[in-house]
Design brief:
Elements: E1 2-7, H1 12-19, H2 25-30, E2 36-41, H3 48-53, E3 59-62, H4 65-72, E4 77-83, E5 90-95, E6 110-113, H5 118-129, E7 139-142, H6 147-152, E8 158-162, H7 163-172, E9 175-180, E10 190-194, H8 195-200, H9 202-221, H10 223-234, H11 238-246, E11 252-253, H12 257-272
Parallel strand pairs: 1-2, 6-7, 6-8
Antiparallel strand pairs: 3-10, 4-10, 4-11, 5-8, 5-9
Helix pairs in contact: 1-9, 7-11, 10-11
């Protein structure tokens, strides 16, 4: 059997696991189980649930929002692991001279963000905490390659930046942080799979989690090399990538009650604001223990 791992640039752990195939982290963990490994690169992490359900991939990872929307779409997924919190992974930026001081000040404004990603969770939760609605009180527009320019010229009021784009914007100056991610959500990387694989072959999931930890250990110990890989592949300067990657925890943790509670809160906000059409019970995305023989 070949285990296919989905890879996209927005999940740093999977991205570096893929680009470190020369070290064979995934292969070394799966071969003792009699399995081979393949990688399936794709660009939009929001599609991860769909790709799992179609059997295109067997294992994937995103930020916090895509698994909730995947559940809402009827995909039977199971959470397998999460990263440690990433409080400095991203931020909502405004011009330095903007009158906006709190999330409540976003009412009636246009915000650029990666809609459907963890950034939706960030903005929806910040607005909800301020008594506002993601659906009704702001105009959410999808980020583009010129979002930073639009922000600086006043065409949009705020922009959620992450990774090297955030590092570059801060290096240039003239912008300030209106909302720090870690003050609103934990912003973890989230890893998940199909229920059949999680419940019938848990040893494979354990092996993949070990492989992710090995890739994370490498990236934590070699931030400059990891930055060179990302810069050459995705653009941006090595320095900005190193700054962004050095801010990540590079630690994989078990799925716990606190994480599930935060995901449930997000799901409830998304449903209340119409971002998802039906309610989601996040606890359903947990593997059932195998039945004991009698």
């Amino acid at each position: 059997m070949t285990i296919t791992i989905g890879v996209h640039a927005s999940n740093p752990s999977l991205y570096h696991l893929y680009h470190l195939t020369r070290h064979g982290f995934a292969q070394q963990e799966l071969e003792p189980l009699g399995e081979s490994v393949a990688f399936h690169p794709y660009s939009n992490g929001v599609r991860t649930g769909e790709l799992l359900s179609r059997g295109v991939i067997d294992f994937g990872g995103t930020g916090s929002t895509p698994p909730v929307t995947a559940q809402a779409a009827g995909h039977d997924l199971v959470y397998t692991a999460v990263s440690a919190p990433r409080p400095e992974h991203g931020a909502l930026l405004v011009p330095e001279d903007s009158p906006l001081r709190t999330a409540a000040d976003l009412k009636g404004r246009t915000v650029h963000l990666a809609i459907g990603s963890w950034q939706t969770h960030l903005i929806a939760k910040a607005l909800d905490d301020a008594g506002l609605s993601y659906a009704d009180d702001i105009t959410a527009e999808r980020s583009t390659g010129n979002s930073e320019q639009l922000l600086r010229t006043g065409a949009v009021a705020a922009w959620v930046a992450q990774g090297p784009q955030l590092a570059a914007a801060r290096r240039t100056g003239g912008l300030r942080t209106l909302i720090r991610t870690g003050d609103v959500i934990t912003d973890r990387s989230v890893f998940f799979t199909r229920r059949d694989l999680a419940e019938q072959r848990p040893e494979i999931i354990d092996a993949l989690t070990r492989a992710l930890r090995r890739a994370d250990d490498w990236a934590a110990a070699h931030p400059r090399d990891a930055a060179r890989i990302a810069s050459a592949d995705l653009g941006g300067t090595v320095e900005d990538w190193e700054s962004a990657l050095s801010a990540l925890p590079w630690r994989i943790e078990e799925v716990g009650d606190a994480f599930l509670a935060e995901q449930q809160e997000a799901a409830d906000i998304f449903h209340r604001t119409g971002f998802i059409e039906r309610p989601v019970t996040v606890a359903h995305a947990v593997a059932h223990a195998p039945a004991k023989a009698v």
